[in-house]
Amino acid sequence: MTVNEAAKIIGASILTEGTDTSREVREGYTCDLLSWVMAHGREGMAWITVQTHMNVIAVASLHDMACVIIPEGISVEADVLGKAAEEGISVLSSRLTAFEICGRLTQAGIGAC
Question: Which domains does the chain have, with CATH numbers?
Answer without folding.
Answer: 3-108 (3.40.1390.20)
